[in-house]
Amino acid sequence: MDFDLLKPEHYPRLKPYFAAQSQPLSAYSLASLVSWSQCIFDTVFAEVGDALLIGERRMDDPARKHLLLPACPNGPKPPAWLKEQALAGDYKEYHLVPQTYLDGFGRAEVEKHFSVAEEPEYEDYVYISAQLAELSGRDYAKKRNLVRQFERECVEAGRVGSELIGEANAGSCLTCLEGWRAERGDQDWNGLLECERQAILKALKNFSALEFQGLLVSIDGEVAGFGIGSRLKDDTWVLHFEKALGRAKGLYQYLDRECARRLFCGVTFLNKESDMGDPGLAKAKLSYRPAFRVKSYRLALR
Fold it and tell me: Per residue, what are the HEC states of the chain?
């Protein structure tokens, strides 16, 4: 079985496979898969009947590889089919398998073909979009106070602008991205953060082609924060990237609220991805009171 390296130019051809996909983990956004390809992993694909097989291979060690669940407009494939395709492609594992797959086919049926292990670092946080737009109630009191402080000091002073990101202004986010990188310094910078930076660069370069939606916030005429998201499934969008400089207190909370109001208005759920096992990131995501979390599993061939 031959796999091709996933590139931005493949997006129009592969989009129909994802039109009716129901997987709730953020990894199953085609725009995100394209953006992160060639960042630690090469993302590859193969078309098999009515399904799109998706694989990831370590760039520094291609033998370390795994599959994701296939994208299929006619519904999820059963465990026996997954095993057959893994063997045909010389893969031994599926990663990022959501709880809904186990529930749909039954864990006992899955375990006839695979051993099952949780991936807690890839458990996604999912929020009710309207709650993030309103920030009502006691749980969001600290967030509201920070937003209000930013509005008093910057918005009401006429220093703040915001606009939707498009092909014409996507490049204006680059200075903000490099400022975000500089704030962390060489000591706190690591391979994963550099990989994320590269993924953001690819997303901005191919913004319209990958059908991203985004919002930028500027202070004194310079972009100080931005958010970028894409559709995951009928009732859910994903906020893939959200970056804000540390120059103004409350900027991040203001940006987050404005993204919920302007990018995801009318969307039921907003997925903010996983914490990747980072305690600080987990604390920040929990502070926004997720409605639920989506568990992720690894399936290994028996």
Answer: CCCEECCHHHHHHHHHHHCCCCCCCHHHCHHHHHHHCCECEEEEEEEECCEEEEEEEECCEEEEEEEEEEECCCCCCCHHHHHHHHHHCCCCEEEEEEHHHHHHHCHHHHCCCEEEEECHHHCEEEEEHHHHHHCCCHHHHHHHHHHHHHHHHHHCCCCEEEEECCCCCHHHHHHHHHHHHHHHHHHHCCHHHHHHHHHHHHHHHCCCCCCCEEEEEEECCEEEEEEEEEEEECCEEEEEEEEECCCCCCHHHHHHHHHHHHCCCCCCEEECCCCCCCHHHHHHHHCCCCCEEECEEEEEEC
Query: Which residues of the chain fall short of a pLDDT of 50?
Result: none
290 within some domain: no
- Does one domain contain both 109 and 181? no
What's residue 78's pLDDT? Answer: 98
Can you give the pLDDT at residue 139? 96
| 185 lies in the same domain as 238 | yes
- Per-residue model confidence (pLDDT) at position 176: 96
Please indicate, yes or no, whether residues 93 and 23 belong to a single structural domain of this protein.
yes
Do 194 and 233 belong to one domain? yes
pTM, two decimal places: 0.95
